[in-house]
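User: What would this chain look like folded?
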Amino acid sequence: MGGPIPEPFSSWRARAASYCDGREGEGGKVQRIRLSKQETTLRVSLKGENIGMDLKEWCLMGLSRVLNQNRSTTFSSTGEERYWQFKFNVRDVIRETISEDEMNSSLILFFTVLFPAFLRSAARCEGYSQIACNAEKELIDELLRYNITSSPNEFFLKVFERCFVAPLSLEGPSLDLGIGSGDASAFIFKDKQLSVGSDPSIELVLKARNFNFYERYAAIDMTCIPFPDKSFRSVLALNSFYHTQDKKTALREMARVLAPGGVLVFNDVSQMRDFRTYPDLLNRFGFKTLKQDSDEFRFSLNGKSDSFTDAAWIQDELRDLGFERVDSVPFYSEPLAQIGEFFLDFQGIFTINAPAFFEFPNSERFLKAWKKFLHEVVAPMLVQDESFCRETGKSGYLMFHAVKSGEPLPTNPKPDFVCPQCKTLLTKTNSLSSCEKCILDYPIIQEIPLLIPFYAEAYSRA
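Assistant: Here's the prediction, encoded as structure tokens.
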């Protein structure tokens, strides 16, 4: 898969040892959202395009929460809407028998003690205790200290990402596309300095800014990056590239803003869709409609592009874009992915987050049990991940590392923002970044520029 594995992606485990330490309204209606005390508003148009709750809709919903405004969830897909209703029904049915507090206590017990106990016992039977994995345990313990409240699936991925990125020299200026809430950036990029942190969601960018890891922040879509050509020496898109609905354009844009000799690092999904136990259970139980609905719901925010990604296609695209060296590594083997996806799917049903349980009073014993699960089950699986992927020829993800051809050029240490559409320089005021050529105003919320066309389309002066 992607040919031989050259340095710096030769053995991620060797690097681990070195770097331890309900639907309302109709389409087409307009909602006005007050931006500030000034007479400025956002106008959000719901056109009812047949793409479900896509990235645009999700980001606009986040913006409405930032501005303390209500925005109805809309679904053009009947399956997605039906699955939302199923999730609400599950909790309603449980409440018929036990209280909300009893339900939460039961969920804590199941996700942090009972199911992990089953996996720990199975791991002992398989001889996992004989596998040397001290380096992996240290990485897990370090990540736990960051108090990251993501799903186990994402927790596992962050360990992989740290090991892939750690040996790389990420020269500045650098651009990180898709930082999410930013709670793991300091762990993944330990001892590195990154220039620009971005995400399409202003809601997530504001959360990420609280960690103060990047020099600058902006709301950016990787298919229309608002920077001039050859602006960065390093461009990263970890756990975000597969969210785009136009991968070809995203690759072209990342290549455009990367200077000659610069480094591009990103990952994409591979056979992850085949590694989900939950839909298979629904199908085996005879709930075929619900199985299809769960697939629509689960992948709606992933750009509906979670089918198998061919490493050769991405490598060919990057070479056509001027990259002289393109390496790819399969990771996240089926056994580990099955566990991560099981947690993710069932937590999604109950709208919970297992690590968040550790914020409850008297939760030390649950954290202790959870840590034992990570040490006894996950750490040995991390050790075996590379061999599992190689033996089966399958992986949940592919990591790419590419170097752009050409002699390194001097770069502006602080690149200026440009219009994401026409690439001309923007004129900035206190509340707007304006493009005179396109006649578009991009709003600035709490000093964060929202440099995506759909934010500009949503904006209008009162």
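Residues 30-74+416-461 form one domain. If you want, I can go into more detail on any region.
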